[in-house]
TrEMBL record:
Keywords from the named record: Metal-binding, Zinc, Zinc-finger
Gene3D superfamilies reported for this sequence: 6.10.140.2220
Nucleotidyltransferase is among the record's keywords: no
Origin species: Sistotremastrum suecicum HHB10207 ss-3
SUPFAM superfamilies: HIT/MYND zinc finger-like
Source species taxonomy: Eukaryota, Fungi, Dikarya, Basidiomycota, Agaricomycotina
Keyword Metal-binding belongs to the record: yes
Listed name of the protein: MYND-type domain-containing protein
Source domain of life: Eukaryota
Length: 646
């Protein structure tokens, strides 16, 4: 590191250069040692309190372990936000004005440009409204995380006129052909024929730029990467794409002049994930394969997880496809909106556009690659009821569910579209569409705190259950990933007997109660079940997470020793026998009988740990009796106001 970023360094009153061999980890370790701390050991509570005192922290702010549950909230002014009767504020969160203003502005930006608001407006004005969501997203990104993402600068400073054959020159040419000349009455067919090659040039130069930025692969073409910010590239592509989409005559001119090339570049080639994400996937696959026979501690640096995270984070800095996707999606949506064409070519293009946009928007890898840019560009699909039904029938229902519950770019629009779906969408799902839609329910997180997400989960799961019974949920109930919800496993178990007995299917209110009860299982029930369902290698790695919580448990100590032997290839009694031994021991794990918040493998272990656990156990019991104990993810008890999801 040659020197400090002056913008960052100024915040720390630091204006000099870092030493050539500066190592942040060593510096932090030295600081810890200077304070008499072992940098590799967990921080001691007494030392923490002393440290807080040394830096002037008010000791009265520290919470007493014996504090009553009610006392936790004493002195906190919750009146402004607490409204337990308000379904939109189930937790009584304090309302913060600037956050409310941000949400309102985001909702308004999502709805701008929709057909019902655009009647009689010129194309230029509608395009401007549609572009506001991209601009607002960029502004919020700058506000939240600073100069990253679309604020990335090109390799060379922009010039006037721009470098011939460079990114900005290509964008200006596309805009001149599609917007300026066409608005002046010049239908430049020769110019429209150049659009695919100009788009390809922009795509390839962005790939060149990020090959250098991420992988330090230098080529002469870097000097053509002359954009002021990556935002200018995305904005320019989106503006041209929207203008074509909103004017059928321009779309016809483009496809008449360059249809086969548009088909090849956009519908056949599309956008790839890039070489660095491919390498990250390959590394992750090889690591997972090796871990099937190696079970060192779950968070150990030795198992490659730190390296895997670092490689993936580095690959995620590649935003070439992220910035390019607008034009691709705009043209595909334009083809989908155009139902008047009946030529064989148009029907082929439309079919390909539907398949690709369903794949891009439903596949987790591509959703991560394109982010909110793709969701933003897909809003016209959600505004058009006829196209929406067709999209869902082709497998896009999973995408709609994810956009309604995950995406900041069109969550409001997608949630409204989801609510408008006719019942025929659910009853006519294909086998693959049903499978993808059901699997998408696993991606809905935070629904206990987000009324919109809960509504989508409730309605989607009940529609599937009403049409197909419990069969679609069976595969979800078999999930064995350590961090996935077991809600569907519990749900299927509860319903199987009723279904076999021929009882009528649950009404939606009954289904809501069933969902909530299936998710709320305390740790003493949740964790032993998770451990029993893991693969053998994951069971060894998660031993500390889901095993006995008596720190002096002789069985845990034994299994930790066996785990290290197993990781080094020393098979004491055979690997299968070791796996069976751990599995059988795990079947005996039980939660504390009084609070179910702590897990033990035997009565002896619970008695040994009682001195440490008694105080917390008493607090949990008190909270439960007072109705102020919630159940969080993984069965973790949470002190606070009772959840009210409606």
């Amino acid at each position: 590191m040659d020197g400090a970023d002056p913008n960052v360094a100024a915040n720390f009153d630091f204006n000099g250069a870092f030493p050539p061999n500066f190592d942040m980890n060593q510096a932090m370790a030295a600081m810890a040692a200077a304070m008499g701390m072992d940098p590799n050991a967990p921080i001691d509570q007494n030392m923490l309190e002393n440290l807080l005192g040394d830096v002037g922290m008010d000791q009265d702010l520290l919470m007493d372990d014996d504090m009553d549950i009610e006392a936790i909230f004493n002195g906190l002014d919750l009146a402004a936000g607490v409204d337990l009767d308000n379904p939109n504020n189930p937790l009584g969160n304090i309302n913060i004005p600037w956050m409310e203003e941000h949400e309102a502005a985001n909702t308004e930006a999502q709805k701008l440009g929709q057909p019902s608001y655009s009647i009689g407006k010129p194309i230029e004005e509608i395009v401007g409204e549609r572009l506001k969501l991209l601009r607002r997203g960029h502004e919020m990104q700058l506000f939240d995380i600073g100069n990253t993402g679309l604020s990335t600068h090109g390799f060379v400073a922009p010039a006037e006129p721009p470098v011939q054959g460079g990114i900005m020159d290509c964008l200006e040419s596309m805009r001149r052909i599609v917007i300026e000349e066409y608005d002046e009455g010049v239908e430049n067919k020769t110019g429209f024929q150049q659009i695919p090659s100009l788009l390809t040039r922009v795509r390839d130069l962005l790939r060149t730029f990020y090959d250098f930025k991420v992988g330090h692969l230098r080529t002469p073409d870097l000097h053509y990467c002359d954009f002021p910010e990556l935002f200018d590239v995305a904005y320019g592509l989106h503006e041209v794409g929207l203008t074509i989409q909103l004017d059928p005559s321009r779309l016809k001119t483009l496809m008449d002049a360059a249809g086969p090339e548009i088909e090849r570049v956009i519908l056949d080639e599309g956008l790839g994930i890039g070489r660095f994400r491919e390498l990250a996937k390959q590394y992750e696959a090889e690591k997972n394969e090796s871990e099937q026979h190696r079970t060192s501690a779950f968070w150990s640096r030795e198992d490659g997880r730190g390296n895997s995270r670092m490689i993936k984070d580095r690959a995620d800095e590649d935003l070439a496809a992220y910035a390019s996707v607008y034009f691709y999606a705009d043209i595909m949506v334009a083809l989908l909106l155009n139902r008047s064409g009946d030529s064989d070519d148009h029907l082929t293009w439309r079919s390909k556009a539907m398949k690709k946009i369903v794949h891009w928007s439903s596949d987790e890898e591509f959703r991560h690659l394109f982010g909110d840019c793709l969701s933003d560009a897909m809003r016209p699909i959600y505004w058009d009821q006829q196209l929406l039904v067709e999209f869902c029938g082709e497998g896009g229902l999973a995408s709609l569910i994810k956009d309604a519950t995950q995406s900041g770019a069109c969550s409001v629009v997608a949630e409204e579209a989801f609510s408008s779906l006719p019942d025929t969408v659910w009853t006519s799902l294909t086998e693959s569409g049903l499978s993808m839609a059901t699997e998408s329910l696993l991606s809905i997180t935070g629904w206990a705190y987000n009324i919109q997400n809960f509504r989508v989960l409730l309605n989607a799961s009940h529609k599937i259950y009403k049409a197909f019974g419990t069969a679609p949920f069976n595969r979800l109930s078999m999930t064995k990933k350590w961090n996935e919800s077991l809600m569907f496993h519990r749900l299927v178990e509860k319903l199987r007997e009723e279904e076999e007995a021929g009882l009528p299917r649950k009404t939606q209110p009954e289904w809501k109660d069933l969902l909530l009860s299936s998710e709320k299982a305390l740790r003493g029930i949740d964790h032993p079940l998770r451990l029993s369902r893991l693969s053998p290698s994951d069971r060894w790695r998660c031993l500390e997470f889901y095993g006995c919580e008596n720190p002096d448990c002789i069985h845990t100590i034994k299994f930790l020793r066996l785990r290290e032997m197993r990781a080094r290839g020393l098979r004491e009694g055979g690997e299968a026998e070791m796996d069976k031994s751990l599995y059988e021991w795990g079947k005996g794990l039980r939660g504390c009988e009084k609070c179910q918040s702590r897990i033990y493998c035997s009565t002896e272990c619970q008695n040994d740990d009682w001195k440490e656990h008694e105080r917390l156990c008493r607090r949990y019991q008190q909270a439960r009796e007072g109705g102020s104990l919630n159940v969080g993810p993984g069965g973790i008890p949470i002190f606070g106001l009772p959840l009210q999801v409606v």
